[in-house]
Model the fold of this input.
Amino acid sequence: MPSATVNDFFIALTADSSSKDNLERIYTGLSKFVEVFNGDKSIRLCLVNNIYPSSVKNDLIAQIVSDCKATRTFLEVIIEFNLLTSFIESREFFLKKLRKLLGKVKIEVVTIDVNHEEKLELIKSSLENIWGTNLELSFKEDPGILGGLVLQVEDKYFDGSLLGKVNELKKINVKGDFNV
Done:
């Protein structure tokens, strides 16, 4: 759970940006920041280490989030108040809140093969029928699931894979409810 102070700054950031376009820019900026922070160890170490001055950290923030002044200011304030670690620990919480404000749903689809465009389009179309068209979709390949799909919709997990079904049958058999 985020600290009250970080949450207060976040509420101020989103309340001040009432238009959907502004919220979209904030979301894009924070998503980009989180992606870079997660993916680049040297940037991560610089931003969380107190030996670097705020000016160095603010320059990094400006390079990462150049498209949204509100997001830059938010991150700079978080750094100034030494709350970056608290924000980072709660980053998915804040991104989820922004997605909710924007009416977006984040879905990660795990399938055995991501190279068939027709199959991916069918999956996308089916998901849009269920959750609407404002989806943030990502596809991941895992031949180990044997077939079917595994979905992570925000923080909910749906295992429709063949491997998942086999594992369910194994659990039933171990309990003695099903004997093959």
Q: What stands out?
A: The radius of gyration is 20 Å. Residues 4-101 form one domain. The chain has a mean pLDDT of 87. Residues 15 and 23 are 9 Å apart (CA to CA).
